[in-house]
Design brief:
single chain; 239 residues; five-stranded antiparallel sheet; mainly beta; OB fold (Dihydrolipoamide Acetyltransferase, E2P); Structural Genomics Hypothetical 15.5 Kd Protein In mrcA-pckA Intergenic Region, Chain A; 3 domains; 19 strands; S4_RNA-bd; SH3 type barrels
Length: 239
C-alpha cells in the first residue's frame, strides 16, 4: 500500500487532515514511519517548494534534492532525525530535528554546518574477518579492520560527529555527565541541555535514566531517549 490515511499519519507530517483522505506512505528505509517525513511531503508541506505532490515528484525525479549529500529520486524516501536536506540550485540546506511539543521539524542551516551530522551509535558488533562494525541510527555503518583504543572506546549510546559526503568521523561524543544532549523521543522530545546525571545502576523494571539541565529547568528521561550532540555546547544548530 503506497498511501496511508491522513488521520493516521504522524503529527510531524504537518499535513492538513481534511484536505484529502490519503497521504503518501514512506518507503522502507533508514528511519521508521513514526520517526520520518516522506521527502515529497517535506517539499510540499514544509519547505513549500511545490504546491502539489506531482510538482514535488518532478523536483525529486530531476535530481534536484540531496539527502546527506546523496541524490535521492524517490519522493517517498523517509527523511529523519539529523538528516541534511539540500537544494543545491537554491543554495539552501535544512536539518531534521525534534522540536518540543511539535515533533520532527526543519531547521535551516548555513555554510560548513551543512556537511556535518551527528549520529547515535545503536549497535556495535564483530563481523566476518574479525572486523568491528558500528551501526548508526540513520542506517550508516562504519567497519574497522584495525581496532585501536579509539575505536574500542566507542560505546552504544555514544554519538559520532560525521562529515559528509566523504563519511569520515571527526569526533567521538561520549554519553557522560558534562556533555550536551538532545532528547529525541518521549514527552520531553526536543529539550536539550547539559547532562548532570546518568543512572545506569537501576533495578528491573526500572530503566536507565538521564537528567539534563535545560533552560527550563531539570528534565529526566530514559537513557535511550537521549542523543549526545556536543561537549560544552551543541556542535550543530538545534533551533
Amino acid at each position: 500500500m503506497g498511501h496511508l490515511k491522513r488521520l493516521a499519519a504522524p503529527r510531524h507530517f504537518d499535513v492538513p487532515r481534511k484536505a484529502a483522505k490519503f497521504v503518501i506512505k514512506p518507503s522502507p528505509g533508514p528511519h521508521p514511519i513514526e520517526g520520518c517525513i516522506p521527502l515529497g511531503v517535506l517539499l510540499r508541506d514544509h519547505i513549500k517548494y511545490a504546491e502539489t505532490m506531482l510538482e514535488a515528484k518532478k523536483i525529486v525525479k530531476e535530481r534536484k534534492v540531496l539527502v546527506d549529500w546523496r541524490v535521492v529520486t524517490d519522493h517517498k524516501f523517509p527523511v529523519g532525525l539529523m538528516d541534511i536536506v539540500s537544494i543545491p540550485e537554491m543554495d539552501e540546506h535544512f536539518r531534521i530535528l525534534p522540536v518540543y511539543r511539535k515533533g520532527l521539524s526543519l531547521i535551516k542551516i548555513q555554510g560548513d554546518e551543512a556537511r556535518l551530522k551527528i549520529c547515535k551509535i545503536i549497535r556495535k558488533m564483530h563481523v566476518n574477518g574479525g572486523h568491528l562494525q558500528i551501526t548508526l541510527h540513520d542506517g550508516n555503518n562504519f567497519r574497522f579492520k584495525e581496532v585501536g583504543a579509539e575505536v574500542l572506546s566507542y560505546k552504544t549510546g555514544d554519538s559520532l560527529l560525521v562529515s559528509f559526503p566523504e563519511k569520515s568521523i571527526i569526533k567521538h561524543l561520549k554519553l557522560s555527565e558534562g556533555n550536551y544532549a538532545l532528547v529525541i523521543k518521549g514527552p520531553e522530545e526536543g529539550r536539550h541541555g547539559k547532562i548532570v546525571e546518568v543512572r545506569r545502576d537501576v533495578a528491573y523494571p526500572s530503566k536507565p535514566t538521564v537528567t539534563l539541565e535545560t533552560e527550563n529547568g531539570k528534565v529526566t528521561t530514559l537513557l535511550s531517549y537521549v542523543m549526545v550532540v556536543g561537549e560544552d555546547a551543541p556542535m550543530v544548530t538545534l533551533a
